[in-house]
Design goal:
Layout lengths: L8 H35 L4 E5 L17 E6 L18 E8 L6 E6 L5 E7 L6 E8 L5
Antiparallel strand pairs: 1-2, 3-6, 4-5
């Protein structure tokens, strides 16, 4: 018994259609996988910074941004040592610890701005000169 296979013109076309469809599915799956990997990588970012000013005490201009010139830790590079801005690289809850000290009878106020909007008071000192006020603030960014 002899088995013969004849070439049919409709075989190639049908296979090409199937291969094209599978190729499109693979492209779509690869795009989804890449997006999911990017989200996973972003979720695994560790963020922490510790910064202070080398002068103690130091003067801050009215309505000025405090720029700490000594950065001892900056995991995730979220704190910009040039601008004094912290940019949250991923959504989450962040904790900030602050200290401020009134050096004259006028008192001191310090605010943290979220998304560039009006400040959240984190430190207010109207005590006698030399009094230190410390605060902790939990902040959940609305957008990152």
């Amino acid at each position: 018994m002899e088995i013969r296979r004849e070439k049919r013109s409709d075989d190639v076309s049908a296979l090409q259609t199937v291969v094209a469809g599978l190729s499109q599915q693979m492209t779509a799956f690869n795009a989804k996988l890449t997006a999911m990997q990017a989200k996973l990588d972003a979720a695994n970012i560790n963020v922490a910074f510790h910064a202070h000013h080398s002068s103690d005490p130091f003067n801050v201009a009215s309505q000025g941004t405090i720029v700490y010139n000594v950065v001892t830790t900056n995991i995730g590079n979220a704190y910009n040592r040039n601008s004094g801005y912290f940019t949250a690289p991923v959504s989450g809850t962040y904790v900030f610890f602050t200290n401020c000290m009134a050096v004259d009878s006028m008192g001191e106020e310090m605010y943290i701005k979220q998304d560039g909007k009006s400040g959240i008071a984190v430190c207010y000192s109207s005590h006698p000169p030399g009094s230190l006020t410390s605060k902790a603030l939990l902040l959940s960014p609305r957008t990152c």
